[in-house]
């Protein structure tokens, strides 16, 4: 018969396992595990097998193992994990894509009934429709101020009703009603709370950013740098094009109001002296657009005129 390891030996084994995982992986998801059962956790481990490892444990043990690993290897970056180990949390060590692993974890959510005294994680709305309950069950609906009517010998809910609000405790009457309606309003699973990547810690919302989002944020940052540089008259690569254009405008304004000139101002001064040249250049373009419009209409004016003539004939014919 095998001898069971003592508590001290279990702690040593846990420290060794966690330190080994910290040494082998640079990407870690910190997940909340409230209301997650053992079978559900086993299914998650099976689904992530091959590229990720799920490790649960007491927060004090995990913090101690992280400190041991930091002291042994000199990797102080892992100490950033310690403030994240609060509450019922676990660690997912992965070498795969963080976004894909996070999406895979989100698939393993299990529906759960509304238990009495539980803090509702979401709003619960009872939909309208036939409940299948006999009229003797109307007391539940009356206690919760849910409008109902009797239809074909069963209770029917008339309008949707917000039964439980997020953050409220589930009362016994609400839990009994949802149980009778066979509604399992809540779902539980591992929830990614933080992401650790090579010493950096960031929110899981970052994983949902697309390339377009990053380009937009980068463009917004460049715009802010350009605006600040222009306001301070401090040259930067982002503000240089705007500074050159503004300088050109200033010099052009001086050239237009004085006899001073330079090659880039000659064309502007020429147009200002003789605007007809500009109109001659625009006229062919306008004429060409007019011809295109007439061709597109395909003689619509003639058809309209013919139609008007026929209309006139009909009107005069009525009074003849």
Automatic annotation (TrEMBL):
Transmembrane segments: none
Biased composition (Acidic residues): 303-314
Assigned protein family: Belongs to the universal ribosomal protein uL10 family.
Keywords on record: Ribonucleoprotein, Ribosomal protein
Positions of the Large ribosomal subunit protein uL10-like insertion domain: 114-183
This protein's name: 60S acidic ribosomal protein P0
Domain of life: Eukaryota
Function: Ribosomal protein P0 is the functional equivalent of E.coli protein L10.
Region: Disordered, residue numbers: 283-320
Subunit annotation: P0 forms a pentameric complex by interaction with dimers of P1 and P2.
One Pfam entry name: Ribosomal_L10
Gene source species: Ziziphus jujuba
């Amino acid at each position: 018969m095998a001898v069971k390891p003592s508590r001290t030996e279990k702690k040593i084994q846990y420290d060794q396992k966690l330190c080994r995982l910290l040494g082998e992986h640079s990407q870690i998801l910190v997940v909340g595990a409230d209301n997650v059962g053992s079978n559900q956790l086993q299914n998650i481990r099976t689904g992530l097998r091959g590229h990720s490892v799920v490790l649960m444990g007491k927060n004090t043990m995990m913090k101690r193992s992280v400190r041991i690993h930091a002291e042994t290897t000199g990797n102080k970056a892992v100490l950033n994990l310690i403030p994240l180990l609060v509450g019922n949390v676990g660690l997912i060590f992965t070498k795969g894509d963080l976004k894909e692993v996070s999406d895979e974890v989100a698939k393993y959510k299990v529906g759960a009934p509304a238990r009495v005294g539980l803090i509702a994680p979401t709003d619960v709305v009872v939909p309208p429709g036939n409940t299948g309950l006999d009229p003797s069950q109307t007391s539940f609906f009356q206690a919760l101020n849910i409008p109902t009517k009797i239809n074909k010998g069963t209770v029917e809910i008339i309008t949707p009703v917000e039964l439980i609000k997020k953050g409220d405790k589930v009362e016994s009457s609400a839990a009994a009603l949802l149980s009778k309606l066979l509604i399992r309003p809540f779902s539980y699973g591992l929830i990614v709370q933080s992401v650790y990547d090579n010493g950096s810690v960031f929110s899981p919302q970052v994983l949902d950013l697309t390339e377009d989002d990053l380009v937009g944020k980068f463009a917004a940052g460049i715009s802010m740098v350009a605006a600040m540089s222009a306001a301070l008259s401090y040259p930067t690569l982002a503000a240089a094009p705007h500074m050159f254009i503004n300088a050109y405008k200033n010099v052009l304004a001086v050239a237009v109001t004085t006899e001073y000139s330079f090659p880039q101002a000659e064309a502007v001064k020429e147009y200002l002296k003789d605007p007809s040249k500009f109109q001659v250049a625009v006229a062919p373009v306008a004429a060409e657009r007019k011809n295109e419009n007439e061709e597109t209409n395909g003689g619509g004016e003639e058809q309209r005129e013919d139609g008007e003539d026929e209309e006139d004939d009909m009107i005069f014919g009525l009074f003849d």
